[in-house]
Design goal:
Strand content: under 5%
Radius of gyration: 19 Å
Number of strands: 0
Order of helices and strands: HHHHHHHHHHHHH
Length: about 260
């Protein structure tokens, strides 16, 4: 991003520049460098406002929302997603960004049990798919429904939508989709009290995050430990919490956590 940004700014290729900046912020979040991610998202927002570029402003707000979500500030995340969506809805040819932003908004609300206007959110996401479907991002609609039914403990409906995810993943075998699917299945198995199966899903995810996303790795370890507690394997859970503390110390030492 640092290499490309000056040239893109010089050529005023803002439609490329701001998505690139948003991806750079998301990469920092993955690494656990939340403070720098927030700073870069704010800088991105200020730049977009200065040149009066609504698309850039919307993406900056989306980037800020992602940082709030990752740092455990759900209310600020939800507000920033909603503000981003309001701007994005007025921009032509923005449906792919609207789909992913709505997906993240819905998941944030469901994760923290904030169900205000959730039916309207699903209705809007549905309307986007009526305008444009048959694409890889079809994944996000059944994924949202799967998580909704997991969180509301309607497991037959959740499984129905999880199977739809499997079908879409067969057509578009993207690693990102695989990771989301693993996470959804882990939640499903926890609610079904199939804890061994949930642990297997976490193991697959942890194998990936250990190499590429240390901050996310710590978050998943915390969830895995909670499953072990549910299984009354408290000694194993304690070992994981010790590993988590060690990893957090490592992240703190590198100034990755705010």
């Amino acid at each position: 991003e640092k290499l490309l940004s000056p040239e893109l700014e010089k050529q005023q290729e803002y439609h490329i520049l701001f998505p690139l900046k948003m991806m750079a912020v998301q990469a920092l979040i993955t690494e656990g460098n939340i403070s720098l991610a927030v700073n870069n998202a704010n800088s991105m927002y200020q730049q977009a406002k200065a040149i009066d570029y609504p698309f850039g402003t919307a993406l900056a707000l989306r980037a800020l929302a992602d940082t709030y979500q990752s740092s455990g500030n759900p209310q600020s995340a939800i507000e920033s997603y909603e503000e981003s969506l309001k701007i994005m809805q007025k921009i032509p040819a923005s449906i792919p960004y609207l789909k992913t932003s709505m997906f993240h908004l819905i998941l944030s609300k469901l994760k923290y049990r904030q169900m205000t206007d959730i039916e309207k959110d699903f209705a809007y996401l549905e309307s986007l798919y009526h305008k444009e479907s048959g694409l890889p991002d079809d994944f996000y609609l059944p994924c949202s429904y799967a998580y909704y039914y997991i969180q509301t403990n309607n497991l037959p409906k959740a499984l129905e939508y999880l199977k739809q995810l499997d079908s879409i993943y067969e057509k578009y075998p993207y690693p990102y989709y695989s990771s989301i699917s693993n996470y959804m299945y882990a939640g499903y198995h926890i609610e079904s009290k199939e804890y061994d199966k949930a642990l297997k899903e976490y193991e697959e995810l942890l194998t990936i995050t250990k190499k590429t996303a240390l901050f996310r790795h710590v978050q998943l370890l915390q969830e895995r430990a909670k499953v072990l507690v549910l299984m009354n394997q408290k000694q194993e859970a304690c070992k994981i919490y010790e590993e988590i503390n060690h990893l957090k110390d490592s992240l703190d030492a590198q100034s990755y956590l705010s």
